[in-house]
Amino acid sequence: MSTTMTVQEAGRALADPTAYADEARLHEALALLRREEPVHWVEAPGYNPFWAITKHEDVLEIERNNNLFLSYPRPMLLTAELDEMQRQQREQGMELRTLVHMDDPEHKKMRAITADWFKPRSLRRLEGRIRELAKRYVDRMAELGGECDFVTDVASQFPLYVILSVLGLPESDYGRMLKLTQELFGGDDPELQRGANAEDTMAALMDFFEYFKELTASRRANPTDDLASLIANAEVDGEPLSDVHTFSYYTIVASAGHDTTSSAIAGGLHALIEHPDQLARLQADLSLMPLAVDEMIRWVTPVKQFTRTAAEDTEIRGVRIAKGESVLLSYPSANRDEEVFEDPFRFDVGRDPNKHLAFGFGVHYCLGARLAKLEARIFFEELVPRLESIELAGEPQLIATTFVGGLKHLPIRYTLKS
Q1: How many structural domains does the chain have?
Q2: Cβ neighbourhood burial of 354 (10 Å; 0-12, 13-18, 19+)
Q3: Which sequence ranges are marked TM in the entry (predicted)?
Q4: Closest by alpha carbon to 413, among 263, 265, 273?
Q5: Peptide bond into 45 cis (omega under 30)
Q6: pTM score > 0.85 for this model?
Q7: Is residue 161 part of a domain?
Q8: Rounded average pLDDT per 10-residue block, the chain, 418 residues
Q9: What count of other Cβ atoms lies within 10 Å of the Cβ of residue 225?
Q10: How far apart (Å, rounded) are the C-alpha atoms in residues 85 and 82?
Q11: Do residues 411 and 314 make contact, with C-beta atoms less than 8 angstroms apart?
Q12: DSSP state, 144?
């Protein structure tokens, strides 16, 4: 590990997709920023400048103050080229408008459309189906003969089946949705990207739009009782959703609804392999599973950042933030903050309290957080008791990204009880 990284180099790492594929480098950079300059101005090649926010307390305060720090128009860090393309799309009325792009009162109204689907009483109806799918994929591991790439064979498949069955999409389309999601979130990774430029990333997004355009027409003509029909036929202030709002809603539910959970499950298993004492502890006491799942999510932190724009001049830790400037909220940094987490680089399946910010906070707290935790809990409740042995069978590989991601390959060798 480098010992000569400067604060400026550490800041630029936040805009370097390869840094997120090298956890040692990433956490060295984040620890340096937390220690030396927790509010740091970043000028990185190919990106519009931004303030890097790396302390848990500051990320939390910005999330709380959603009227001062706005999601629109720059909700996430993108290249300057993609920022410009979005600006042009905005002028044409074709800009992606998901929940993460919105501020109140629009955000509150749009979130309310699907909020009931993700409440505990609604999720209880899904538990049987989720457990059935979890058993299917643990059985799938057994069928693979004791060796597999856990990401591609299991972790990327199980949550996909859950969320797309909730949406009501046909199983024949699941492979297409997985590929489009990987192209959208893996646009910086040579293995997953459709192409190396901004036009290719936008093309993947447009393919999402085309798919959901047909789905919307179908559900409006023939409504069913699935989530897709609810979105297609929703109204806000007595008016049906625009095409852009409808497609944007589908896109965020279908993509974020499984990709982040896949990363948490894969990264969680990797952590258990690397910390066999914690796996043994969990096997001896399955009642720890809810705490263990939260620790896995903290450990992985699938969403790496969101950005906010200052609505007026303000200060963070005495540093002046001018109106219109962007602040990047680094969730991996906040979730390893030494002032909040005791021994933050220790993986602890019994960590309590665990005040991680992996799902955000406040009005933008992840709509699907309960579903993600339910899926992970049920999956590991099915897997952990059946594990007799498990080890790495090759080198794990992380996605190169600046937004959402985790492991893209986790080769493992294992024995399972029947």
Answers
A1: 1
A2: middle
A3: none
A4: 273
A5: no
A6: yes
A7: yes
A8: 81 96 97 98 97 98 97 93 84 80 94 92 91 96 96 92 86 80 70 69 76 87 91 93 86 78 96 98 98 98 97 98 98 98 98 97 93 96 98 96 93 95
A9: 7
A10: 5
A11: no
A12: T
